[in-house]
């Protein structure tokens, strides 16, 4: 509006006749006419009315050419997002227009604090309650839309529905519920237990509707209810086009009866359409629109709907249909996905991902909808209702650690009902969604969707920033929030925030205290290109790279191989976090993860709130695999990739001395150690004076010593160089070139060992990795016992069978679980004491007492009984050993953990003592009795090479010393084949072949049964006589440097009950129980 203002000047003429002196003689001149004022133009600057805030004043009138200023006022919980209009600019909270030349409008935009935090990926811009309320409101909006869709889609279905997609199916969950909802959920699994996951999903993005079926709803277990639901779904997908001019449908990649009798889906869908759309549909000829032909079918048939399955006859995967799917999307043609496999297929996995779906195989669980009430489906989406409940509990800080009391392992795996109800059911949605996103390299903050997930990740950031270890069991809120932080981590984010307090992950738990962050100084990062190699497929290995907490890291793969690569962060097994046991929260629940994949030619960014060593898991193909990777923004921690390289040893010392990085990696071809720094440094002292000495001991005393005893090639040497001379000579004389076949006698996996605050079980826990709660000790019992666990083989495991089962291999069961591996720590301890350190004094170890063997045998010789006259067997302490009336039962029948371990160890150690200095069957002298173990290991692997098929076996069984053993069909085998031979039979026959001696008396002395077939073979092999029954006199002391040559041999016989232990002791002297 323009206003013109005019000011009129009124001239006052003041004068009067006769008013003055008559003689003035003057006259007043006339007043000039008034000058009109200048014209001033004004314009109005007005503020738009918007939610979340306002401008004050609401409008202003401003002279032309002048500027107006407005104060920006955001409502509580909101912040200005942007403002525009009137050519103005914002300075702090004042918006100033440009010089006004016309009326104009200023439009501010306010967003909630939660939306602002999401926009900037910064949890500090919103409170926890604001993030929770944002999520809850989003869930309410999602549910309102879902209910409207469910109501529409279940019209006419009835009150309930059942559908079993069979075990050849998959189930779903939606990590993008803003777009994709559950149409038909399961309610039970195959056992009838309540389990809710999606069987049929539907959704819409950018104008294209879609659905996914875990099985084929057209042809699998159909009913009137499923027919109505499917017709409604088709109508919804096509937005009613199926009812206008008839349904035009195209099928692609659909299995037919010709492909499999079980999946005649091409036939099934066409029968279904003929029945339910009679004379009102058109469909392509089966298989005519597969792969690239689908694009032509879209052009020519202009379908209302594409139904695509995942049979991939040409092995092209999703690439075979990618272009056609893009054409369908561009045209807005709806897709209906029909799975027919037991896991998601490469053909459809990309589409599931784009639909926001996580999948799970249904083969074992057999989830199905069983008389599921439609009102239940309408009432709630169980997964999202669980999320809503969790958010409410978080908002109200409602949590009691008592719900954790029934958890017997890491909480991530705990399915205790109380915990699931109070926390886990909702938290698992965040976790499974993050896992799917990470495995597909999706950083949600780089996308415009995923608001619910983004808010959850920021809430976890906030809680993580406030963690202060240790957290007591009574600190309910802190425990609840730490759980959520640990559950909700996405490593595909480029900008995870570093967790300030890393707890016992980086330092001993004794160093933790409230108010103090366990952390470390960061070194400079580097960019580096490496070729990373594993000697065998399916292995993970150290890279020498370290991820700093919160650091954006970029990996680029530069090779062109077909190897599959996954980035693994940290090494910890899940139950090494003992919060469930100790009731104190001291570190993140899950440190190790292997979610992120790195395809050939791909570059990917990732980050971690915890940091840690970076490993690569490489699989695919045969033999050694190598990949070429460039890493940006990684740190270099104390690590050795090649012990033979002096430069690496020097660099390791430098990193240990000059960085605070809290982890160490040591790599050899067949074994790797991963340690928290203190578990390495605390091992220095005594006979290991410095870092270099410790590194040398790890290689020589631990890894190489154990692998040599097992007859394996060691790094940096040929197999011929790795084996003791007597072993090499005898083995080659008996078995030829198989003895030096490196492909046969090289460890076929990388054995990993972890040293940290806790082990996965106990204080030392076997497996791969095995882990320890102690400092690394290359000559220690625990280290070599655990490494030995992974070298145990059934053919060298001592076994128990009843008398009735001695000629039935299926009746034998291993009793070597915690003892056959003890040959390794035993020999390492002996070698270290006598050979490495040159000691001459006796050394003892409490893991076994050979006196037990004497007392058990002599109990049978003396016929010891209890007061009732019942036979009993005594141990060295004059206590009844166990249930059983003889040495064949009492020491062997029980399969309890580590029971009678010392007695069972005696089988192996006394064997080596007997073999020491022996002339073997080929004439070689066995210089050290422990080398008999090496020969047994080599013979076992050569046996295994030829026992895999009948033709190889028949050609080689005589050479192996097993010429009486057919490949299969022997009555002793119990329906098995020769490769399933139990340890007692194998070792008895092997010893007869290696030594030319009959060892049956030795097995009889120990109470070990063997088959009549093995006995007959021994008779044929033992051309050099029989081993005398008896034992060497040892208790807890290890044999001297000259082995049995320095020991007393005690002959034993069941017919002589007078034999005494060291001239004084006998079980016949024990008090009768």
Automatic annotation (TrEMBL):
GO molecular-function terms, A-Z: metallopeptidase activity
The protein's name: ImpA-like cell surface immunomodulating metalloprotease
Transmembrane regions: none
Domain Peptidase M60: 538-863
Signal sequence residues: none
A Pfam match: IMPa_helical
InterPro entries: IMPa_helical, IMPa_N_2, M60-like_N, Pep_M60_3, Peptidase_M60_dom
Tree of life domain: Bacteria
């Amino acid at each position: 509006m323009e206003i013109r203002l005019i000011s009129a000047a009124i001239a006052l003429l003041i004068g009067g006749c006769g008013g003055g002196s008559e003689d003035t003689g003057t006259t007043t001149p006339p007043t000039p006419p008034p000058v009109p004022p200048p014209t001033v133009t004004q314009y109005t600057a007005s503020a738009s009315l918007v939610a979340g805030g306002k401008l004050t004043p609401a409008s202003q009138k401003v002279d032309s050419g002048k500027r107006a200023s407005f104060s920006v006022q955001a409502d509580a919980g909101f912040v200005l997002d942007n403002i525009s209009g009137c050519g103005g600019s914002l300075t702090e909270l004042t918006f100033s227009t440009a010089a006004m030349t016309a009326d104009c409008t200023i439009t501010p935009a306010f967003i909630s604090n939660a939306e602002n935090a999401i926009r900037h990926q910064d949890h500090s811009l919103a409170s926890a309650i604001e993030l929770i309320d944002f999520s809850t409101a989003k869930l309410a909006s999602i549910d309102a839309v879902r209910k409207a869709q469910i109501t529409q889609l279940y019209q006419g279905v009835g009150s309930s529905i059942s559908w079993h997609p069979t075990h050849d199916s998959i189930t779903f969950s939606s990590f993008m519920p803003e777009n994709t909802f559950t149409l038909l959920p399961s309610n039970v699994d195959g056992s009838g237990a309540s389990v809710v996951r999606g069987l049929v999903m539907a959704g819409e993005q950018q104008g294209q509707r879609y659905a996914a079926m875990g099985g084929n709803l057209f042809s699998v277990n159909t009913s009137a209810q499923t027919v109505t639901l499917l017709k409604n779904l088709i109508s919804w997908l096509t937005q009613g086009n199926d009812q206008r001019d008839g349904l035009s449908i195209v099928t692609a990649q659909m299995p037919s009866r010709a492909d499999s009798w079980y999946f005649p889906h091409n036939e099934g869908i066409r029968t279904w359409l003929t029945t339910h759309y009679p004379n009102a549909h058109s469909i392509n000829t089966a298989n005519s629109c597969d792969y690239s032909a689908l694009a032509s079918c879209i052009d020519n048939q202009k379908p209302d709907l594409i139904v695509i399955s995942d049979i991939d006859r040409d092995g092209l995967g999703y690439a075979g249909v990618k272009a056609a799917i893009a054409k369908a999307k561009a045209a807005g043609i709806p897709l209906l996905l029909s799975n027919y496999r037991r896991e998601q297929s490469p053909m459809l996995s990309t589409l599931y991902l784009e639909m926001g779906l996580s999948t799970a195989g249904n083969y074992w669980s057999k989830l199905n909808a069983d008389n599921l009430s439609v009102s239940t489906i309408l009432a709630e989406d169980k997964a999202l209702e669980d999320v809503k409940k969790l958010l409410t509990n978080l908002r109200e800080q409602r949590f009691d650690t008592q719900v954790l009391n029934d958890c017997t392992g890491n909480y991530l795996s705990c399915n205790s009902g109380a915990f699931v109800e109070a926390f886990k059911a909702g938290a698992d949605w965040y976790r499974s969604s993050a896992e799917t996103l990470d495995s597909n390299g999706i950083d949600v903050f780089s996308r415009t969707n995923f608001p619910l997930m983004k808010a959850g990740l920021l809430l976890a950031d906030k809680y993580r920033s406030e963690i202060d270890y240790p957290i007591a069991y009574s600190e309910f809120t802190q425990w609840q929030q730490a759980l959520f932080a640990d559950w909700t981590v996405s490593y595909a984010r480029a900008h995870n925030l570093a967790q300030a307090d890393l707890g016992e992950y980086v330092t001993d738990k004794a160093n933790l205290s409230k108010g103090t962050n366990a952390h470390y100084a960061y070194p400079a990062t580097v960019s580096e290109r490496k070729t990373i190699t594993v000697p065998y497929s399916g292995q993970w290995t150290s890279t020498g790279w370290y991820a700093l907490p919160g650091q954006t890291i970029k990996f680029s793969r530069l090779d062109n191989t077909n190897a599959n690569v996954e980035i693994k962060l940290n090494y910890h097994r899940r139950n090494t976090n003992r919060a469930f046991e100790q009731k104190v929260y001291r570190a993140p629940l899950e440190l190790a993860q292997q979610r992120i994949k790195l395809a050939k030619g791909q570059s990917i960014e990732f980050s971690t709130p915890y940091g840690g060593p970076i490993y690569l898991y490489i699989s695919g193909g045969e033999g050694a695999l190598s990949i070429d990777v460039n890493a940006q923004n990684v740190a270099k921690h104390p690590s050795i990739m090649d012990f033979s390289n002096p430069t690496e040893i020097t660099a390791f010392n430098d990193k240990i001395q000059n960085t605070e990085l809290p982890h160490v990696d040591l790599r050899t071809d067949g074994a790797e150690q991963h340690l928290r720094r203190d578990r390495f440094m605390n091992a220095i002292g005594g006979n290991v004076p410095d870092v270099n000495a410790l590194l040398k001991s790890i290689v020589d005393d631990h890894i190489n010593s154990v692998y040599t005893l097992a007859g394996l090639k060691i790094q940096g040497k040929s197999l011929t160089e790795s084996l003791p001379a007597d072993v090499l000579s005898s083995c080659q004389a008996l078995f030829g070139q198989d003895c030096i076949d490196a492909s046969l006698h090289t460890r076929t996996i990388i054995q990993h060992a972890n040293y940290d605050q806790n082990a996965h079980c106990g204080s030392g826990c076997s497996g791969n990795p095995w882990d320890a709660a102690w400092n690394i000790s290359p000559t220690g019992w625990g280290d070599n016992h655990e490494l030995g666990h992974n070298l145990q083989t059934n053919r060298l495991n001592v076994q128990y069978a009843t008398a009735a089962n001695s000629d039935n291999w299926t009746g034998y069961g291993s009793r070597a679980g915690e003892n056959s591996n003890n040959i390794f720590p035993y020999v390492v301890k002996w070698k270290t004491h006598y050979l490495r350190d040159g000691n001459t004094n006796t050394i003892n170890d409490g893991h076994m007492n050979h006196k037990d063997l004497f007392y058990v045998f002599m109990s049978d010789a003396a016929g010891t009984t209890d007061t009732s006259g019942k036979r009993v067997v005594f141990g060295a302490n004059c206590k009844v050993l166990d249930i059983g009336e003889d040495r064949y039962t009492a020491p062997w029948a029980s399969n309890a953990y580590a029971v009678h371990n010392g007695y069972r160890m005696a089988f192996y150690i006394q064997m080596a003592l007997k073999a020491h200095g022996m002339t073997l069957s080929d004439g070689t002298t066995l210089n050290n009795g422990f080398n008999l173990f090496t020969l047994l290991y080599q013979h076992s692997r050569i046996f295994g090479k030829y026992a895999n098929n009948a033709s190889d076996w028949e050609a080689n069984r005589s050479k192996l010393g097993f010429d009486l053993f057919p490949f299969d069909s022997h009555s002793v085998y119990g329906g098995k084949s020769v490769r399933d031979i139990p340890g007692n039979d194998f070792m008895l026959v092997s010893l007869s072949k290696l030594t030319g001696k009959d060892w049956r008396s030795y097995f009889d002395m120990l109470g070990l049964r063997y088959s009549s077939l093995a006995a007959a073979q021994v008779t044929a092999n033992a051309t050099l006589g029989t081993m005398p029954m008896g034992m060497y006199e040892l208790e807890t002391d290890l044999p001297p440097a000259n082995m049995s040559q320095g020991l007393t041999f005690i002959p034993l016989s069941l017919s002589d009950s007078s034999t005494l232990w060291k001239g004084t002791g006998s079980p016949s002297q024990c008090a009768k129980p």
